Amino acid sequence: MALVLHAGQGNKNAYKSLIAAEYCGVKVEHVKEFQKGVSDKTPLFLNRDPVGEVPVLETPYGPLVESNAMARYVAKFKADSTLCGSSAYENVLIEEWMVFAAQIDEGLKGWIYPRMGVRPYNALIEAVVVDSLRRSLITLNNYLATSTDYLVGHSITLADIVMTCDLYFGFTRIMTKSFTSEFPHMEQYFWAHVNHPNFKKVVGEVKQAESVPALPDLMPMDMMLVDQDRLNEEREKRKKDRLNEIIESQKNLVI
Asked: What angle do CA 78, 155, 60 make, to 5 degrees?
């Protein structure tokens, strides 16, 4: 039985398995006519995956629904594959980087989804999310400054595929050049991988986001602190309130 991947076009989580397949020489049939919200509601699909998760990889032993698990399965499908490392130690390092990539992915979702209208928007929360994401990217950038072009060893591994696919989500949706220029080694790493033939065969030409997505219309005002001046005012107000609390507490001290 051939491996069959169910996912819509442009799904970066599906890209992980498809790119791993290109490097390993594994045949994966991609069901391209898949439509999220339609195909994943059919009885046939739900019979494969009752939860309705997307993407789904059909294997001879049953379906897989978590994107990194799917990519691992494809990477290990052939015994001579080196995508999971050449030693037990390298394999663990790869797993560590995949977990770190998931953290970056969560930060990007926390930034992007509210601006897509998928989650409630709050400018204060966004500022915290972006700050946390920036710290993660600094860590990645610093590591790449002293390493090779790969996260583990001296050749492509699943860690690079997963990291690049998760960064792809940010580069194409919200991380503009002015933002990513803070992380030059990360930029060089990303563009080197997405321009490799095995990546380009799957994702095509990659264009970086030119602007941060605008906020959705008709958003409740109590969920918004859009204006930067208002955001700064709110921060200053919190500082003053805290200072007043300290002053009042000092007045109440009994000497």
From this structure: 20
Condensed to tens digits (0 to 9), the pLDDT of residues 234-244 reads: 556 666 665 66
Strands (E), 49-172: 56-59, 62-64
**Phi first, then psi: what are they for 28, rounded to 5°?**
-125, 120
Quick check: 129 and 107 in contact, CB under 8 A? Answer: yes
Peptide bond into 184 cis (omega under 30): no
How far is C-alpha 242 from the geometric centre of its chain's CA atoms?
Answer: 36
Q: What pTM, to 2 d.p., does this model score?
A: 0.81
From 131, 124, 112, select the one nearest 216 (Cα to Cα).
Answer: 112
Token pair, residue 128, equals 């915290």
Neighbours of 22 (CB within 10 A): 19
Structure-derived torsion over alpha carbons of residues 14, 17, 20, 25, reported in degrees to the nearest 10: -120
Q: Dihedral, CA atoms, 201, 203, 205, 209, nearest 10 degrees? A: -170
Contact in structure between 158 and 98 (CB atoms under 8 Å) = yes
Among 39, 5, 23, which residue's Cα sits nearest to residue 77?
23
State what percent of residues in the chain have pLDDT above 90: 67
Question: Which pLDDT tens digit goes with each residue over 224-235?
Answer: 444 555 556 655
Rounded CA gap, 5 and 25, in Å?
16
Please report which residue ranges of 157-227 form alpha helices under DSSP H.
158-173, 177-180, 184-194, 197-203
Helix, strand, coil percent content, the chain, rounded in steps of 5 = 60, 5, 35
Can you say how many angstroms the Cα of residue 33 is from the centroid of all Cα atoms in its chain?
A: 24
Length of the chain: 255
